[in-house]
Write a structure and sequence with these properties.
Blueprint lengths: L3 E2 L1 H8 L3 H9 L7 E3 L2 E5 H15 L4 H14 L10 E5 L4 E5 L13 E4 H13 L35 H13 L3 H14 L4 H13 L3 H14 L4 H13 L3 H14 L4 H13 L3 H15 L5 H12 L1
Antiparallel strand pairs: 1-3, 2-3, 4-5, 4-6
Helix pairs in contact: 3-4, 6-7, 7-8, 8-9, 8-10, 9-10, 10-11, 11-12, 12-13, 13-14
């Protein structure tokens, strides 16, 4: 039987925010491959791919090259790969490979930038999942940031190049944010943007931080910049819509959320917020469609009850 992992399991195992995993899925970067009972689940092969992606991004490798390498890894791994399979996953900065029997990896003409043994990673998975679950803070879907993984879980380190790169600052900023160190995270996000002004993900995350600090105009400019460089990024557009609603620009907020739902139909929170806004302005028929879609995607969440309450009001 294939072992399946929820997004919350993966967040705990790899110490990655759930919102970041959702973002990677929504942008087509990397995500779960199994749909069961209306929810998506990661296989162990998916888990290996996400770990490889996280580790390669941390080395400063461009995202497009990471995507290419991870796609190659997915194709190379047998579909029934198990946590005890004797494999070693390595990358020399150009090519990612999976080698059997834990043999030493010596890439020709290149230094190892990422390497991990599957059995030891499998032990890490088992250890994390056996620990008592720590519930993350619950944030309303209207908020700028989804819930995150517990900060105290630390993923196994890999062999990686050091260096002051925009991506390294970005990864360190995400880790600081996960630990609740907002000032440090803001500083690191700004450093990443100074080095790479077009890094849309860093612009969005910095926008989220200053949004929570009440700096709405700066947050709006950051979201606009993120969308200028990456118009397909749903998280920046979703957060921009929330900000517009806070500013009383509801029609603009609705327009942005419509774009999110069209581009990323699995983005549950966007359907929730759009449904609520439409209901409040009298668009009951469309509100009903989006709230029902939200319940299809996230029926077990704390906010499902609120969605059902609004649906009852619409029906009345």
């Amino acid at each position: 039987m294939i072992e399946l992992y929820s997004i919350r399991d993966v967040a705990r195992i790899l110490a990655v925010q759930e919102s970041r995993l959702r973002y990677w899925t929504q942008t087509g970067f990397i995500g779960p491959s199994v749909r069961k009972g209306g929810r998506f689940y990661y296989t162990f092969c998916d888990l290996l791919a996400v770990k490889a992606a996280k580790d390669l991004v941390a080395t400063g490798m461009p995202v497009q090259k990471v995507r290419k390498n991870v796609d190659a890894l997915r194709k190379a791994l047998p579909g029934d790969t198990h946590p005890t399979t004797r494999l070693r996953v390595c990358c020399d900065g150009e090519t990612i490979v999976a080698l059997k029997d834990d043999v030493a990896f010596q890439p020709i003409g290149g230094q190892i930038v990422m390497a991990f043994n599957v059995p030891s990673f499998g032990e890490h998975v088992s250890q994390v999942l056996s620990m008592p679950r720590v519930d993350p803070n619950v944030v309303a879907p209207h908020g700028s940031e989804s819930d995150g993984a517990p900060g105290e879980i630390i993923d196994n380190p890999t062999e990686a190049n050091s260096g002051s790169t925009a991506y390294r600052h970005f990864v360190e900023a995400c880790a600081a944010e996960d630990r609740g160190e907002s000032d440090t995270a803001e500083h690191l996000f700004r450093q990443a943007i100074d080095l790479e002004p077009n890094m849309a993900a860093a612009l969005t995350n910095l926008g989220n931080l200053v949004y929570r600090q009440g700096e709405l105009e700066e947050a709006r400019k950051l979201y606009d910049r993120a969308l200028e460089h990456d118009p397909s990024q749903p998280e920046a557009r979703y957060n921009l819509a929330n900000l517009l609603e806070d500013l009383g620009e509801t029609e603009l907020a609705i327009a942005e959320l419509r774009k999110v739902c069209a581009a990323a139909p699995e983005f549950a929170d966007a359907h929730y917020n759009l449904g609520i806004m439409l209901a409040l302005v009298g668009g009951t028929s469309q509100a009903k469609q989006h709230l029902e879609r939200y319940l299809e995607l996230d029926a077990g969440s704390d906010w499902a009850a609120h969605a059902r309450t609004f649906l009852d009001r619409i029906a009345a």
